[in-house]
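Section: Multi-chain targets

For targets with more than one molecule, the full set of components is provided together so that the structure can be written out for the assembly as a whole rather than chain by chain. Components appear in the order listed by the source. The example entry contains two components.
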Amino acid sequence: MERFGDDALGLILKWVDDPNDRKSFSQVCKQWLRVEGLNRLSIRVFEPDLLINFLPRFPNLVSFQSKKVITNANIELVSKTCPKLEVLNLNYSELRCNLDEFDDMPGLDDVNDYGLCAFASACNKLTNVLLRRRCRIGSLGVISLVHFARKLVNLDLGRCNKITDEALQAIGSATSLRVLNLQGCWLITDRGLASLASGSLSRTLKKLVIAECDRITDDGLLHLREFHCLEELNLGECGPKVTDTGGVAIAGIQTLKRLNFSWLINLSDATLVALAQNCLNLEAVDLTGCESITGYGIRAFVNHEALKELVLVSCLHFSGEDLEEMVLGCQTLRYIRLDKRRRMWIPNEIQEIISNSLCWLDWT
Amino acid sequence: MSSSLEKNMLILRSSDGEEFIVPEVVAVMSKAIKNMVEDECASNTIPVPNVDANILAMVIEFCKKHDESEAEAASDLKTFDSEFVNRGQEALYDLITAANFRDVKELLDALCQNVAEMIKGKSVHHIRIQFLGYQLFEILTSNFIWNIWCDRDFD
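Its structure, encoded as tokens over all components, is:
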């Protein structure tokens, strides 16, 4: 005889948040185990090969996460068992770290295009799909994902280095995507960016990461102006082909709030002047390693009314006076990161003046 | 044919035949009764099967308090709720069953939250004794769960 009905037990379980308490709950008896399974919304899997043993208990999952190698068969099992999934987090990472990233890729049996196709066709409520470093996934899988998952909001393909321009063309036609991460997808070119910016994506995208895509040139960046509501852009380490032509084009995106230009050695003051004039909402700029910029470009931000954070690590050609003038001129500035070894080049008086303002100098 | 006073009152009859006269606004806090009233399939007396007089009285007390104190401070209501649900196991079971069956959302929430508080931080064994004490033997012999999964597979 069962005192509580399943539905009453489920209602009780809704008030139990702590994972340990929920675990105890599930071990009380068979009924409680069943109810806990039916009411569970998220899972993080450490042993994907044993999915078949426990997953069938959780048909109502909304979020699935696993960092391990997961085969096509297993990913298909997940999609068949849990059709209500909205969040698929397969960001890959092995426990052994600090090795060269490229040595540490998932093996041959990891999920590829076929697995992703099968998954996307079974789960059409997906909103967040994170596939970082699942490098066996290529354009075909992404194309079918975008085709099936019409509600997709966040797509992370960082270091999926098989992604080509074909995938970008499909992503360009996504209707609700807001965050797109293509870090280290080094096969993509200007043509891909052009098709990315020509579809419905240009009306929804808020954040774009194309760091380390070093085939991109100024021609591709010209197309980024098509994004009407882009707020965050990361172009870090996009290589020497990005110059002021591209930089000035990006300054034409007036909605920008956060911008990462790190290690773009051919960007110079002209870009900074354009940014300071056009991007009035700009809050954070990362100029790490932009060797060509000088104090003139940095002083362009005097009187800017939104800038809060500035990273100037490995920038060499500016003086303490430039820094002082900018900090005193830009009232909103709260944080500047600089090289520790530059500290001795900046006179103590200037450091004192700056530290008396609201801006924090972070020496790294 | 019936006066307005009578119109706004409903008679609820418990499973053991006792009748309660309650204002309609109070009675319709139960979604199930509300549906019956709206569908006009309720005659003067609404039978409330599976709920005995004792429990029905408690449910009505709760609904009345919540109806009256709509304008009152929320904290007062909270104190009342926590005192109201602070009852023995038996009454809790019956109240939850009644609230669930009659679909009284506020009561159900207060009750379930209370039971959840009794579970939090307890060991499996403790929960079994507390909630399933009378059938503990049965669980241990026939219904026992072998933990076929291992903590390292998922969380």
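DSSP finds nine helices and three strands in chain B.
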